[in-house]
């Protein structure tokens, strides 16, 4: 119902009824407020109090000191991110400690104070405590815990202090507390005594000292985030940091591995893979291109600036390199989908210089250097295989050549979009090491969400008034405000039937002047009735806010997308890989395309092309064009419904290939297979030259299923059902959107196999039931208001979809296309076409052969002839004729006239062989005698040329395309057609 999405702003707050109610209800107001305070999530009005002057003074001083600490160095912190109170306390303690410990060390009062404070607690450690506290304060001023993860440092520091105090206790004759605090202060303090005394009693002082030393080392590892196998690297980094010297020994993981340093373990898989490929990047030549070092290993980004996703912590502030230096161009085997480089070629020092001489968005220099590396120095293309690459194998040793049946070779040599005229050529998508995810700063910050507004208060009054007018003993106990709707909670008095409130639905709608009131009885998990009423002052949920949320940060999965916010204002995210397929439906203008934009943008923001690849199908032609050229695509955005159907068949083929691989290597899920590939755990047969690579997830998005279902309902349904039944384990996931959630589009089979649903506003309860199997979507208010029913859940969640604007999308797309170019697969359409030819015949092969024979021998293309001669129904005869047409055996329908037969009787054997699955070349040859244009199309297809331009059998005839979606209508079975007029039987 378009009406639902076009609802005009309502004014429940200002209705005279509401105003009167306000005046009429003060009697019970105090009781209700008390009840509300018990359960309400947000809305209790607090009396505004001025800030405590002492707190203000403290915070003022803290901000001044914090500002001073932040003035040095390049870290920037937004005003609202400052958390200066606690670090200022540490600062004050550090100053106090320095005065008592250092400057008044001989003063008896200071000694006594020390004995009962720092000294009494930590013993001799208290001498160093002012420094430790000062450093901690400066760190926290600059890296507040609300912004940075400081829990690790806190834990590490605590363990450090306890263990050092314990050691001080052991090495200072282990005094007993009975000897007095002054004595303890000269040893390890109370903490040292607690840490060491029991241990010493258990395993002797020497044993306890050993344990504490190990713990001390551990605390240092925790503080510096150093895994044991990275100790050598950290020490070198420290050395470089302190003395600014060049780290000659350890500029790459290769040196570590070769040198037998403790990092050897970390680089072992890389080294193993190098060994397998018979190449070595260990070299004394500093000019050697080390493509095998990871960014981490190469130091492209120092470890303290990286976060868990490999993204720079604050990419905007420090201008992240668009291209790492050439010596840092590395695949990163540490990521779940990144594979090591396969080809390493030496290059000259010049290349390194031109990359290394500045920031990497010096694209001109980068381009020059890439050209030199790819065009002049390397004996072919610069090859880093990543996942999806299509290598030029010229000049490579045989063992480096990818074999044709490589499991995942989604790349191709087809058209490449992404780099405009005169733009530097970005590296191929298969070069994951160079790839940096876009910064979330590209997405704008949304308006702050409100927990309560005057509108909410007015509605509470209106609801209360209705309940009172109808003498229902029920109370509005609170509400939770979401961006689009607010859910008001009603608790019933004893003995009051729920139906008494639900029966008031129309009156409530009337009172709040909204026809989109939705009643939940009860609110899941609560003994309360929920009334969801749209906010007249609704808020937009920015995708940037969703992706910046803690929830999103904590979930690094590349397929996790920002969905929006729920009714309680909490962020909602969803992992597409777990869905595993999603049906999105809603009437025009309800927000489907906006959701798909948010989804695709989320993927671009969080996943590298080596982790997620996409097939975007956009028959509407306008919605997804912004993503043309992004490196995550494996084929240009498909807008032609027929080609879309073929692409789905290709996906089935890809899925089958993946399954074959999983089966032959004994894995049940693609994630397990990928893990084993990365860890180099898969043993290939000795003769195999295959290079295993992890599979990326494949996300297939269809932004109007109805258009596809009109063109080739059976094929599309078959493909979708097959994909949805099997693709989960192979990492292939479908998102199907439609504005026509009718049973002919969302068929029972499709529905049964697409378990997750996202329903935007629809026009009728029937539509809502088609999508969700329950009513509710008909009460949504459009513009991104949705009900989300993830797989396995029986209750839908109401969410306001995240919004991402066109300029934001453009920024993200610009970032990713600058990073890498797409590598399209040519075979998505071509191979699929062949597959479709086989698939669409289905069980009718024999009939089709007979029909072909009949038509060719009689040179008469009549449906009713087929009907009579083959004794089949009209529908079947029509289908056979369509199949003959699709193989260019007969021409298109010409109304009631018989169709042209395009092949001669002499060509019949070739035609029959082609139908039986022989080579398409035969068909092309067969067709060539009859129709020049038809043969051109068939030849193009058989030669593997992507159908495009003049050769595009589908794209060239717009009228034909438009009409082709309708079933061919011929005379009905009782009528005579041209065949009948011949008088032959
Ligand atoms: N999440 C959202 N937040 C705010 N506004 C939204 C949101 N989603 C959609 N809208 C508004 O609704 C309008 C229509 O949305 P959208 O184009 O996504 O609808 P649709 O369901 O794809 O429609 P159609 O099927 O006609 O393409 C948008 O232009 C925008 O103004």
Give keywords.
alpha/beta, 10-stranded mixed beta sheet, 4-stranded antiparallel beta sheet, 14 strands, 8% strand, binds adenosine-5'-triphosphate, ATP-binding, Ftsk_gamma, transmembrane helix, transmembrane
Structural class call reads alpha/beta
Topology, number of strands: 14
Mean pLDDT: 70
Q: Count of helical segments?
A: 39
Beta percentage is 5-15%
Distance between the termini: 53 Å
Q: Describe the sheet with the most strands.
A: 10 strands, mixed
Q: Which residues form runs of ≥5 with pLDDT under 50? A: 1-48, 246-424, 830-837, 919-964, 966-985
Based on CA inertia axes, which overall geometry fits?
globular
Bound molecules: adenosine-5'-triphosphate
Helix proportion range: 40-55%
Computed CA radius of gyration, to the nearest angstrom: 35 Å
Structure summary:
By secondary structure, this protein is α/β, with parallel strands linked by helices. The protein has 39 helices and 14 strands. The longest helix is centred in the first third of the chain and has 36 residues.
Task: Note the topology.
Layout: H1 2-5, H2 16-24, H3 29-39, H4 53-71, H5 85-103, H6 108-116, H7 118-122, H8 129-142, H9 151-170, H10 181-185, H11 189-224, H12 231-243, H13 253-259, H14 264-276, H15 295-298, H16 349-356, H17 363-377, H18 454-469, E1 474-481, E2 485-492, H19 498-502, H20 505-512, E3 518-520, E4 529-534, E5 541-542, H21 543-548, H22 550-554, E6 560-566, E7 571-575, E8 582-585, H23 592-606, E9 612-617, H24 641-665, H25 670-678, E10 697-703, H26 705-711, H27 713-726, E11 732-738, H28 748-753, E12 756-760, H29 765-772, E13 785-789, E14 797-803, H30 806-819, H31 827-841, H32 845-858, H33 863-870, H34 874-886, H35 908-915, H36 920-928, H37 932-942, H38 958-964, H39 978-981
Parallel strand pairs: 5-14, 8-11, 8-12, 9-10, 10-11
Antiparallel strand pairs: 1-2, 2-4, 3-4, 6-7, 6-14, 12-13, 13-14
The structure holds adenosine-5'-triphosphate.
Residues 540, 586, 588-594, 739, 760, 783-784, 801, 803 line the site of adenosine-5'-triphosphate.
């Amino acid at each position: 119902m378009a009406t639902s999405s076009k609802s005009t702003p309502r004014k429940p707050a200002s209705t005279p009824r509401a105003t009167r109610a306000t005046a009429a209800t003060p009697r019970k107001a105090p009781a209700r407020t008390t009840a509300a305070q018990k359960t309400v999530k947000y809305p209790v009005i607090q009396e505004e109090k001025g800030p405590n002057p002492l707190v203000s003074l403290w915070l003022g001083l803290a901000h001044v000191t914090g500002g001073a600490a932040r003035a040095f160095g390049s870290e920037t912190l937004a005003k609202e991110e400052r958390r200066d109170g606690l670090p200022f306390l540490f600062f004050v303690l550090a100053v106090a400690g320095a005065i008592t410990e250092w400057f008044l060390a001989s003063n008896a009062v200071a000694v006594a104070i020390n004995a009962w404070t720092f000294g009494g607690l930590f013993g001799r450690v208290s001498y160093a405590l002012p420094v430790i506290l000062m450093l901690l304060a400066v760190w926290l001023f600059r890296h507040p815990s609300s912004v940075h993860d400081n829990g690790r440092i806190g834990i590490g520091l605590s363990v450090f202090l306890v263990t050092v105090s314990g050691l001080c206790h052991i090495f200072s004759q282990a005094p007993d507390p009975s000897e007095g605090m002054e004595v303890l202060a000269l040893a390890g303090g109370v903490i040292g005594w607690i840490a060491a005394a029991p241990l010493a009693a258990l395993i002797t002082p020497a044993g306890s000292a050993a344990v504490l030393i190990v713990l001390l080392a551990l605390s240092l590892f925790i503080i510096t985030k150093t895994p044991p196998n990275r100790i050598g690297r950290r020490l070198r980094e420290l050395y470089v940091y302190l003395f600014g010297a060049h780290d000659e020994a350890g500029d790459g993981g290769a040196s570590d591995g070769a040198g037998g340093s403790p990092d050897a373990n970390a680089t072992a898989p890389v080294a193993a893979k190098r060994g397998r490929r018979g190449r070595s990047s260990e070299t004394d030549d500093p000019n050697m291109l080390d493509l095998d070092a990871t960014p981490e290993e190469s130091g492209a980004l120092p470890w303290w600036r990286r976060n868990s996703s490999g993204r720079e912590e604050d990419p905007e502030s420090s201008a992240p390199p668009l291209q790492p230096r050439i010596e840092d161009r590395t695949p990163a085997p540490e990521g779940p989908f990144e594979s090591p480089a396969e080809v390493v070629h030496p290059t000259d020092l010049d290349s390194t210089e031109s990359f290394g001489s500045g920031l990497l968005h010096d694209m001109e220099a980068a381009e020059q250097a890439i050209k030199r590396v790819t065009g002049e120095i390397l004996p072919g293309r610069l090859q880093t295989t990543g996942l999806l690459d299509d290598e030029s194998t010229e000049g490579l040793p045989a063992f480096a050549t990818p074999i044709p049946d490589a499991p995942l070779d989604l790349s191709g040599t087809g058209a490449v979009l992404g780099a405009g005229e005169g733009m530097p050529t970005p590296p191929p998508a298969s070069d994951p090491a160079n790839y940096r995810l876009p910064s979330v700063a590209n997405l704008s910050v949304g308006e702050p969400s409100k927990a309560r507004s005057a509108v909410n208060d007015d509605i509470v009054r209106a609801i209360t008034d209705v309940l009172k007018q109808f003498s229902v003993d029920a109370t509005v106990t609170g509400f939770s405000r979401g961006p689009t709707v607010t859910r008001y909670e009603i608790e019933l008095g004893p003995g009051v039937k729920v139906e008494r409130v639900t029966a008031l639905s129309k009156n409530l709608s009337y009172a709040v002047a909204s026809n989109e009131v939705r009643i939940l009885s009860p609110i899941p998990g609560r003994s309360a009735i929920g009334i969801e009423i749209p906010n007249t002052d609704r808020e937009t949920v920015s995708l940037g806010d969703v992706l910046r949320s803690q929830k999103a940060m904590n979930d690094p999965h590349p397929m996790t997308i920002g969905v929006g916010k729920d009714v309680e204002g909490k962020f909602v995210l969803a992992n597409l890989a777990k869905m595993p397929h999603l049906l999105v439906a809603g009437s025009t203008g309800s927000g489907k395309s906006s959701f798909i934009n948010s989804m695709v943008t989320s993927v671009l923001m969080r996943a590298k092309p080596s982790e997620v690849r996409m097939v975007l199908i956009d028959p509407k032609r306008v919605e997804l064009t912004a993503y043309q050229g992004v490196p995550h695509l494996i084929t240009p955005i498909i807008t032609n419904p027929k080609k879309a159907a073929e692409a789905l068949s290709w996906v089935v083929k890809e899925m089958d290939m993946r399954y074959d691989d999983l089966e032959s290597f004994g894995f049940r899920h693609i994630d397990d297979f990928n893990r084993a590939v990365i860890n180099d755990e898969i043993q290939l047969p000795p003769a195999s030259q295959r290079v295993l690579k992890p599979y990326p997830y494949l996300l297939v998005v269809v932004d109007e299923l109805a258009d596809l279902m009109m063109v080739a309902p059976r094929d599309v349904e078959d493909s979708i059902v097959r994909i949805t039944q099997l693709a989960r384990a192979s990492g292939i996931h479908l998102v199907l959107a439609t504005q026509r959630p009718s049973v002919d589009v969302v068929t029972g089979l499709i529905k049964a196999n697409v378990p997750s649903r996202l329903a935007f506003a629809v026009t009728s309860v029937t539509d809502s039931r088609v999508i969700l199997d329950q009513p509710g979507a008909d009460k949504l208010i459009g513009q991104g208001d949705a009900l989300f029913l993830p797989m396995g859940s029986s209750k839908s969640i109401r969410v306001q979809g995240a919004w991402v604007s066109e300029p934001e999308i453009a920024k993200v797309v610009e970032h990713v296309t600058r990073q890498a170019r797409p590598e399209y697969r040519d075979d998505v359409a071509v191979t699929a076409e062949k597959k479709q030819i086989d698939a669409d015949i289905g069980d009718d092969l024999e009939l089709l052969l007979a029909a072909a024979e009949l038509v060719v021998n009689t040179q008469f293309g009549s449906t009713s002839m087929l009907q009579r001669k083959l004794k089949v129904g009209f529908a079947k005869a029509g289908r056979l004729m369509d199949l003959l047409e699709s193989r260019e055996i007969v021409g298109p329908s010409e109304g009631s006239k018989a169709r042209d037969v395009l092949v001669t009787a002499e060509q019949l054997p070739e035609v029959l062989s082609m139908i039986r699955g022989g080579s398409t070349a035969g068909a092309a040859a067969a067709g060539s005698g009859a129709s020049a244009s038809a043969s051109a199309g068939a030849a193009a297809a058989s030669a593997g040329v992507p159908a495009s331009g003049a050769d595009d059998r589908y794209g060239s005839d717009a009228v034909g395309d438009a009409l082709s979606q309708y079933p061919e209508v011929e005379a009905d079975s009782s009528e005579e057609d041209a065949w009948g007029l011949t008088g032959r039987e």
